[in-house]
Specification:
186 residues, alpha+beta, Glutaredoxin, seven-stranded mixed sheet, two-stranded antiparallel ribbon, 5 helices, globular
């Protein structure tokens, strides 16, 4: 009985420490009205240049002018795989309106596991089997650290057209919430 109480106290203390660290490091952001929605405008996204799957440079500054959903993911991450159909759907829905998903792979094995995954793995999107249809880059420029670290996979960060962070989601995105936020920024 004493052991279980001690374990419970340790778990509670760890949860409190993680909650405090998370809340202490969050930046306070201003709210602005975009269309009919209030959107939190955070700091600018850090500048970085990452390599795509063909070793071409992709920088965040190249994407200014677009609404960008950065998605930190890995091929082995089940929650990451679960949200890929929603990311494909969002890319299909808004790509012609100045939106893109940018997948940043965190696979330690690198391109040798990511390329076959991206080229062959199909996902059910509204009854159709589709490949990933958005750019995938490797974290070759410490993107995780530049965005302040991650508490888990997947993590998604929505950027406005001017490159400012407006939404951060740890865990699988809520399709409805992300869809509304994207619409408000387009």
């Amino acid at each position: 009985m004493r052991k279980s109480v001690g374990v419970l106290v340790i778990v509670a203390a760890l949860v409190a420490i993680v909650w405090y660290a998370d809340s202490a490091t969050r930046k306070h952001v201003a709210q602005v009205k975009v269309s009919d929605a209030a959107i939190a405008v955070g700091p600018p996204a850090p500048e970085m240049t990452l390599k795509d799957l063909k070793d071409q440079d992709v920088s965040l500054s190249q994407l200014k002018g677009k609404v960008v959903l950065i998605n930190f993911w890995a091929t082995w991450c089940e929650p990451c795989r679960d949200e890929i159909p929603d990311l494909i759907d969002l890319q299909n829905k808004y790509r012609d309106r100045g939106f893109t998903v940018l997948g940043i792979s965190l696979d330690e094995e690198g391109k040798k596991v990511v390329i076959p995954f991206v080229e062959t793995k199909r996902f059910d999107v509204h009854g159709k089997q589709e490949l990933m249809n958005y750019p995938i880059v490797m974290d070759t420029d410490n993107a995780v650290q530049k965005f302040g670290g991650l508490l888990g996979y997947p993590t998604s960060i929505l950027l406005s057209r001017d490159g400012r962070q407006v939404k951060r989601q740890t865990g699988v995105i809520s399709y409805q919430d992300m869809d509304k936020a994207i619409q408000a920024l387009l």
